[in-house]
Design goal:
Order of helices and strands: EEEHEHHEHEEEEEEEHEEHH
Number of strands: 14
Number of helices: 7
Helix content: 10-25%
């Protein structure tokens, strides 16, 4: 059976630099009837566990370590025994987001391929929104899971600690906009977009400078 993409929206708070905001997060599941990967376990471990529906959880992938993308990961991992995967450059944010590292954490490195239901998910290190931000590219599904690196209408925010505008522009330009134009971009918040829809906007983002 070919892997499929499932989508869940959870709600909670994002906290950084002394601020607190109510947010809706996209949680993505990739797999089949037997096994699944969760991308960005946000806010509600019960709802995510219900969506997993007893399948073998291959891993809980964190596109970055802002609290709203990882706050349900420890609970979900404890229930299932699945590892939590995070790029090591986001360790500083992970420490700020929740309790000390549990044994189930492991590093997700640039170029690593995760396999679920016979489908490859390729890790792309795309720093800028955070130092260890990653996207997952599934060429067989024509899909990119972009976390907060790329949204409909522009790159992720860079106005907070550990972020940098020039770095995120380089990541989007060099790692993402080189993918096939018909690649669907499944974002960390809000609506889907595509590489083809966003590529023509690069110069405008640079001119805007934020």
């Amino acid at each position: 059976m070919t892997a499929r993409i499932e989508h869940l929206v959870t709600s909670g708070t994002f906290e950084l630099d002394g601020g607190r905001w109510e947010v809706d997060n996209n949680v993505w599941l990739v797999g089949d009837d037997h096994e699944v990967v969760v991308i960005d376990a946000a806010h509600d471990a019960d709802a995510i566990a219900t969506a997993v529906a007893g399948r073998r959880l291959v891993g809980v992938v964190c596109t970055h370590a802002h609290n709203d993308h990882v706050n349900a990961a420890p609970d979900l991992a404890a229930r299932t025994g699945a590892p939590i995967l995070l790029h090591p450059a986001d360790e500083v944010l992970r420490k700020a987001a929740h309790a000390p590292r549990e044994p189930g954490y492991r590093e997700l490195i640039d170029g690593e391929e995760l396999t679920v239901a016979g489908t490859g998910l390729h890790g792309l290190h795309t720093p800028g929104h955070s130092p260890g931000a990653v996207c997952l590219y599934a060429p067989e599904l024509g899909a990119l899971f972009s976390g907060d690196t790329l949204f409909k209408g522009g790159p992720g925010a860079t106005g907070r600690s550990y972020s940098d505008f020039g770095t995120i522009i380089a990541s989007v330009r060099d790692r993402l906009l080189t993918l096939p134009a018909d690649t669907t971009v499944h974002t960390g918040h809000g609506d889907d977009t595509s590489i083809g829809a966003e590529a023509p906007r690069l110069d405008a983002w640079i001119a805007r400078g934020h």
